Amino acid sequence: REFVASPAWSSVLARLRREFDLVLIDGSPLFAGLSTAILHRSVDAAVLVRNRALTGARALVRARDALDAGGIPLLGVAETFV
What we know:
globular, alpha+beta, 82 residues, 3 helices
């Protein structure tokens, strides 16, 4: 979590963006402590991945609302264990 907020992370991400057309970052669950304010500095958009067996619709709506509040566009939702 601290690394993502560090200048080193910004440097790594800037280099990746120069070298690649698309950079995917696989992160921890949205409510595991990483704020959308920190995420907003690192991402252009998000795709939520939901384990259908473990994550209910309310949690999905809360995650969407958190992304909206943080100014992070939601591109879609991928469901696992369907």
